From TrEMBL:
Protein's UniProt name: Uncharacterized protein
């Protein structure tokens, strides 16, 4: 792993912070009072650029979980009739408009989570590599 990979991953995560902050503020009404406190605390860490610990990934996943569960409930499968189709039609699965809108609002948060996971994985890769090199030179 090169330093460039880590720098690029960190930069990508930091570039996602403004959109993630906006998304959290837009979704604030969906959280109860206890969760709102966690949202505001997480936004404070975002603003300070203190988002590169494992707990930040877990906090973000915890905040996203109930919203993602709601989005999953928005999938609907229906039959599309087509007399020219060999089977008479086909099954189509779509995301209902309200769920699609919610998914779009949470997308910056999912992208930030993915970027933070990449930074964590690069950091872990570096740690493993250092240990392996130390063992080889003993």
């Amino acid at each position: 792993m090169s330093d460039d990979q880590m720098e690029t991953a960190i930069l990508r995560a930091l570039e996602l912070v403004p959109a993630a902050n906006t998304a959290l503020n837009d979704l604030d009404h969906r959280f109860d009072s206890r969760e709102r406190w966690r949202v505001h605390e997480f936004c404070g860490r975002l603003d300070a650029g203190k988002i590169f610990e494992d707990r930040d990934i877990y906090d973000l996943e915890d905040l996203l979980a109930p919203i993602q569960a709601e989005i999953e409930l928005g999938w609907m499968t229906h039959w599309v009739h087509d007399e020219n189709h060999a089977a008479g039609g086909w099954s189509e699965t779509i995301l209902l408009p309200a769920a699609a809108e919610l998914e779009a609002k949470t997308r910056p948060l999912s992208l930030l989570r993915d970027a933070l996971v990449l930074v964590r994985n690069l950091r872990r890769t570096e740690d493993v590599l250092i240990k392996m090199l130390e063992q080889r030179h003993r």
